[in-house]
Amino acid sequence: MTRGPGWIEVDVDAIAHNVAAVQRELGTTPLCGVVKADAYGHGVDLVLPVLMAAGVGMIGVTANDEAHAARRLGFRGRIVRVRTALRDEIEDAAPAHVEEWIGGLAHAREVDAAARAIGRRIGAHVSINATGLSRDGIDLRRAGGPEEVAAVGALPGVHAIGVCAHFPCEDEHDVAEGAEEFRSQSAEAAALLAAGVGRRLERHCATSFAALSVPASRFDLVRVGAALYGDTSAAPGLLRPAMRLLSRVAAINVYPPGRTAGYDRTHRTARTSRLAVVPLGYADGFHRVLGGRAEVLVGGRRAPVVDRHAMNTLLVDVTDHPAVQVGDEVTLAGAQGGDAITMQDLERASGQIAADLYTAWGRLLPRLARRGGPT
Ligand SMILES: *Cc1c(COP(=O)(O)O)cnc(C)c1O
What we know:
Layout: E1 6-11, H1 12-26, E2 31-34, H2 36-40, H3 44-53, E3 58-61, H4 64-72, E4 78-81, H5 87-92, E5 98-102, H6 105-118, E6 122-127, H7 145-154, E7 158-164, H8 172-193, E8 202-204, H9 208-213, E9 222-224, E10 243-248, E11 251-255, E12 260-261, E13 267-268, E14 273-278, E15 295-298, E16 301-304, E17 314-317, E18 329-336, E19 339-341, H10 343-350, H11 354-364, E20 367-370
Parallel strand pairs: 1-20, 2-3, 2-9, 3-4, 4-5, 5-6, 6-7, 7-8
Antiparallel strand pairs: 1-10, 10-18, 11-14, 12-13, 14-17, 15-16, 15-18, 18-19
Helix pairs in contact: 1-3, 7-8
The protein binds pyridoxal-5'-phosphate (PLP).
Pyridoxal-5'-phosphate binds at residues 34, 36, 82-83, 166, 207-209, 223-227.
């Protein structure tokens, strides 16, 4: 691994723990382990072997890279795409045998055309708008909706395997209502798709939150991503966070009271201040919105990020941490000593969901696997 200004550390044992915990909660319901966005930034190469060892027979991807990587790693189970793909992507996914997510009749025609190009039918899950996400599902309650589903089923290149939906909100009540609506609408859609075929279609709509907090949403399988990485508000205490974001103190300087620090003069020193330079910034995925709001751990204690961030640098006030020296490890997410910068801390500081941050870190920074539990 090349050493960079910062890195992410992925706790492989935590992921194994989470997979086992989710499987225990689910009982006999099959788990589709979602590894989109390169396993939510944790790395398909690290996560796939864990899923395979746990006997997970189905994964969810978005990009073809994830599907091809899974096959290279020896995964022989089913691969389902959990978004609508472009025609070129669908054709390029042929060697990995990806089941496609059908987002309406026009999209189904693209899948059908791709099937002709690759010379075989393509397995497909037809999205319906039972939960009211109104993103890619066919609306069965709209005039012409049922006919649209039937027309998808009649396309020769589309081999309907499942009926699916996706929840708009992580709210128990909202999910429970959506699951009830999905129960009736997915039965209707399955009947339309399987007309004359007599095949039973798989029905699925649950994500981590739904699967763990509303068992009635589980149906034939659940598509679980965030929980595998320990990032869900459902089932508190059940799961372990799997990613830390780390760097080191590159420089420390002392400034007198009344100086402004960083761009736009947003911070003013109220006393003689020791400011530590950490060589990460918004171009590394530590978003600018965290400036002046986030805290980091250094020397096992919290210290505030004071400036508004540069592209590759941020400033931490370590005045109250006299022992901190150049070269000391800085934890921007995750545990250090007895404390931790949690995903909830980062969500509060950024006003964004944590996945928006850590998927970027996974893309932009070197990744180090850790095994053997918490240090
Ligand atoms: C990302 C995604 C999932 C997994 O959601 P989590 O909340 O991460 O468990 C399931 N289904 C679809 C369609 C998705 O896009």
